[in-house]
Amino acid sequence: MGSDSKELLGIEPLELRFPFETKKQISCSMQLTNRTDDYIAFKVKTTSPKKYCVRPNSGIVPPRSTSDVIVTMQAQREAPADMQCKDKFLVQSVVVTEGTTTKDVTGEMFNKGSGNVVDERKLKVVYVQPPRPPSPVREGSEEGSSPRASLSEGGNLNYEDTQTTRESDEPPLLSATRAHKDAEDVTSDSETSALISRLTEERNSAIQQNNKLLEEMDPVRREISKQNGGFPFVFVVVVALLGILLGYIMKR
User: Fold this and answer.
1) pLDDT tens for residues 184-236?
2) Can you name the residues that pair with 66 across neighbouring β-strands?
3) Is residue 94 classed as helix, strand or coil in its secondary structure?
4) For residues 8 and 40, is the Cβ–Cβ distance under 8 A?
5) CA-to-CA distance for 69 and 92, rounded, in angstroms?
6) Rounded to whole angstroms, how far apart are CA atoms 176 and 191?
7) What confidence tier does 145 reach under pLDDT thresholds 50, 70, 90?
8) d(Cα 106, Cα 95) in Å, to the nearest integer?
9) Cβ distance 121 to 91 under 8 Å?
């Protein structure tokens, strides 16, 4: 069994760094390493249990092996002032007998008052700027700068058990309505072009027919002009009617 002076579990990293974004769940991980020949039980606690979910929040790390723990911060409505975070995590570990399973891990195992040898490691929470896409304009010295040092640790922090459940992300909505509207717009434009083309053809045909009719009537007009010495009234009426007919066809 391990002695009370040695570190039972190695923890990496000792700072939980969250690339903070509002209204978005953010996760980071830590790795627990058992370098001893004993079976080690662990339990993860935090000062803000409603804000974080930990999976798994307790378990067994066999000798000479590691266990990964995922810490998820629930979506926050707004960023804290100066991106400072006072939240802390506590990882407790204790030696257990071989054959102990995760279901056997209880809070009583980590009660120092019961004479148990409990190893404890405190972890800070640090908010960092989320990665940004490359930009031709330099953004100044914000990127890559180290976060400010945490506020004073405080001797009497209240650590509570963490949760293991987390809310599922909402599935993205498909823009089917917009796609349908775009298809209708394309169809409407095509129909309009076809209508304009047909009307243009009809107008050109009417003009050609009118010109042909005028050419055919020209000899008649000349003959009447020779006989009467001018334009008769009937001819003027016919020409006027042809002009009205042409105007009606072109308006269509």
Assistant:
1) 444 456 677 777 888 888 888 878 877 887 787 777 677 766 766 555 666 66
2) 33
3) strand
4) yes
5) 13
6) 23
7) very low
8) 13
9) yes
| Other CB atoms within 10 Å distance of the CB of residue 106 | 11
Strand-pair partners of 46: 89, 160
Percent of the chain topping pLDDT 70: 68
Residue 55's identity, in one-letter code, is: R
Non-local (6+) Cβ contacts of 225 within 8 A are: 231
pLDDT at 96 > cutoff 80: yes
- φ, ψ of residue 135 in degrees (nearest 5): -130, 145
Distance CA 126, CA 17 (A): 5
Which one-letter amino acid corresponds to residue 60?
I
The DSSP result for 170-237, as a single string, is PPPPP-HHHHHHHHHHHHHHHHHHHHHHHHHHHHHHHHHHHHHHHHHHHHHHHHHHHHHSS--HHHHH
Helix (H) or strand (E) holding 240: helix 233-251
- pLDDT tens string 41-84: 999 999 999 999 999 999 999 999 999 999 999 999 988 888 88
Cβ atoms within 10 Å of 7's Cβ, excluding its own: 13
Q: How far apart are CA 129 and CA 72, in angstroms?
A: 17
- The pTM of the full predicted model, rounded to 2 decimals, is 0.54
